[in-house]
C-alpha cells in the first residue's frame, strides 16, 4: 500500500521573461502519490489553455507531470499554477 505524498511544484518560464516577448510558462509538479491530479495554469486568476506531458513515475513510484502554455509577459498580468491533489485538496496558487 503506497504512502500518499504531496506534490512539489515549480513554476518558471522557458526563457528569461521580457515584457512583450512571447515565452512559455511551465508548471512542473513532482514527487506526488497517488497519480490523480489536476493542474491549471492561470492568468490573473483565470484558467488558460495549456498542454500537459504524459504522467510519468520515478523509481520510488512517485509521479511527475509538466503543464505548459505560451504567454507574453507584461507588467500588468499575473500568472500562476493551481494544483488539486487528494493529499491537500487545492493548493494556494503557486
TrEMBL record:
Residues 7-94 form the Ig-like domain. One of its GO terms (cellular component) is MHC class I protein complex. PROSITE patterns: IG_LIKE, IG_MHC. It holds the Pfam family C1-set. Signal peptide: none annotated. Its main location: secreted. It is found in: Secreted. Keywords: Immunity, Immunoglobulin domain, MHC I, Secreted. GO terms for biological process: antigen processing and presentation of peptide antigen via MHC class I; response to metal ion. Coiled coil: none annotated. Belongs to the beta-2-microglobulin family. This is Beta-2-microglobulin. It comes from Bos taurus. The lineage of its organism: Eukaryota, Metazoa, Chordata, Craniata, Vertebrata.
Amino acid at each position: 500500500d503506497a504512502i500518499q505524498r504531496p506534490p512539489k511544484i515549480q513554476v518558471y518560464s522557458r526563457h528569461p521573461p521580457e515584457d512583450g516577448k512571447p515565452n512559455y510558462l511551465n508548471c512542473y509538479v513532482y514527487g506526488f502519490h497517488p497519480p490523480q491530479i489536476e493542474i491549471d495554469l492561470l492568468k490573473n486568476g483565470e484558467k488558460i489553455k495549456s498542454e500537459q506531458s504524459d504522467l510519468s513515475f520515478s523509481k520510488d513510484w512517485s509521479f511527475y507531470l509538466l503543464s505548459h502554455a505560451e504567454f507574453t509577459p507584461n507588467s500588468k498580468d499575473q500568472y500562476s499554477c493551481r494544483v488539486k491533489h487528494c493529499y491537500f485538496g487545492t493548493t494556494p496558487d503557486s
